[in-house]
Amino acid sequence: MKTTTFKLSKKWLMIGSLVAVSMSGVTQAQTINAVMHSSLRILDPIITTAHITRNHGYMIYDTLLSTDADNNIQPQMLEKWEVSDDGKTYTFYLREGLKWHDGAPVTADDSVASIKRWAKHDKMGQMLMGMLTKMEVVDDQSFVMEFDTPTDLALHALAKPSGVTPFIMPKRIAETPENTAITEHIGSGPFKMVVDEFQPGIQAVYEKNPDYIPRNEPASGTAGGKKVLVDKVRWIATPDAMTSVNALISGEVDYLEQLPYDLSPIVKANDSVNIQVLDPQGYQTIMRMNHLHAPFNDKKIRQAAMYAVGQESILQAMIGDPEYYKTCPALFGCGLPYESQEGSEITVKANLDKAKELLKEAGYDGTPVVILQPTDTPSVNTQPVVIAQALRNAGFVVDMQAMDWQSVVTRRTVQAAPKDGGWNIFSTNNVMAEAFDPLRAFSVAANGNQAWFGWPDVPAIEELRLEFARTPDLEKRKELAAKIQKIAIDEGVVLPMGQYYIPGAFSNKLEGMLNSPVPLFWNITKKS
């Protein structure tokens, strides 16, 4: 195998020393050193949909319900739940012996407070609260939810594995105002955060929670027994992908959450490393337009932009290897229960003639399209480049603005006009587990200022989503999902740009990796 050499940067020398410290001494075999897809800076998993913060949430918090590898809903912090005969009332019972990391008992008060804060940020949570007539504590171990109509929405919402995950926190922390980041990081989950060792953007360290009581069921997806079999997990940021791959091959790190596609041949040639897609449902990359400001406050111009962009060119630039992607019009996932072909004529293949025709009909006046382009995150930095060129080819004037991903995450919240610091287009990626159906898929919500960034206002979608929430029959739900997809694409609420799969790479010293939409560090052993 050809050895790749590189010059160590000052930042990597510092990171290398962190790894060396973690691998020294008697705990060497009990520490997993991991390079995640992004560095961790935001620690409140309720105020952001950033996946790295969600991943952090799974380390230290737990959920009332979880979703297993077969997409079945399972109890997690709950011992059980009961449903009234009319389907309107749910009573939830906590498991005995649950403790916060500070030793205090977990109570139903904590659960109710956490649900309330989560629901203010999550689209599914907002719908849940809109259908609730009552949510109250019964005693320390149980609470009740009453709805205005029969529905199983509570189960699906509290078990959702991604997006804004409904993590349960101590009441005093959950009562933090919804738009203020929490400052205390105490959960009841399988790991504790070592706060003194946290260095934003450089490393995050987690240690085994000795008081955690795993469920008896085998681990499956985000459900089942969360048995921690190592002492520590250290997330380390590296300056570039090549550095990460070399560190994995040399044994300095044990785990790469996302292996860059172009570097996979180097890793495949090394017998000490395994490559595996741990999330078989995959990801979806999407384009989001701002409905508030010109030019995309015009439906025809939104449609023109969608016709201009073809999925194959996006996926080729982003991934390259067809083994790891497929074109797919389905908003709710190809091969998943709510798959639909509605809108395929506008989503899959580019049609520049149609795009130009619509621009002419709309009287497009050359208003620049501000596209946000992150430069530091490989999974989202190629889409804007391809989109920009496609729009130029169709006749748009484009202003592509480069910045880091954290700046994109901040900028996309701005509702001002593009010339005043706002934006017109950004792209991002969804785990299919968070776009699984019209309720989980926050990018489909279309309730104006309450919607996700872009703020589409399409009442017909919201009416159908509410009907979906109230419908128990799977076949009827499939019909409703197809209608929602048709309207969402026609209105330019979101453009699906294809489905793809990300391989992870890890040392063959690690065993027990779980298939899941979230990288999980329980159930893993590390051999000496």
Short summary:
The chain is an alpha+beta fold.
Biggest β-sheet: count, sense, barrel?
7 strands, mixed
Low-pLDDT runs of 5+ residues are 1-29
Query: What's the CATH superfamily of the largest domain, by name?
Result: Dipeptide-binding Protein, Domain 3
Strand content: 15-25%
Computed Rg: 23 Å
At the fold tier of CATH, the topology name of the largest domain is Dipeptide-binding Protein, domain 3
- Annotated CATH architecture of the largest domain: Roll
Mean pLDDT: 92
Number of strands: 23
What is the count of structural domains?
Answer: 3
Number of helices: 16
Distance between the termini: 25 Å
The assembly state of the depicted protein chains is single chain
Name of the top-level CATH class of the largest domain:
Alpha Beta
Task: Please explain how this structure is put together.
The chain is of the alpha+beta class and 528 residues long. 28% of the residues lie in helices and 20% in strands. It is built from 16 helices and 23 strands. The strands form 7 sheets. Strands 10-11-12-1-13-21-14 form a 7-stranded mixed β-sheet. It has a 4-stranded antiparallel β-sheet with strand order 5-6-8-7. A hairpin with a 5-residue loop joins strand 3 (65-67) and strand 4. The longest helix is centred in the C-terminal third of the chain and has 17 residues, at 474-490. The model is unreliable at 1-29 (pLDDT under 50).
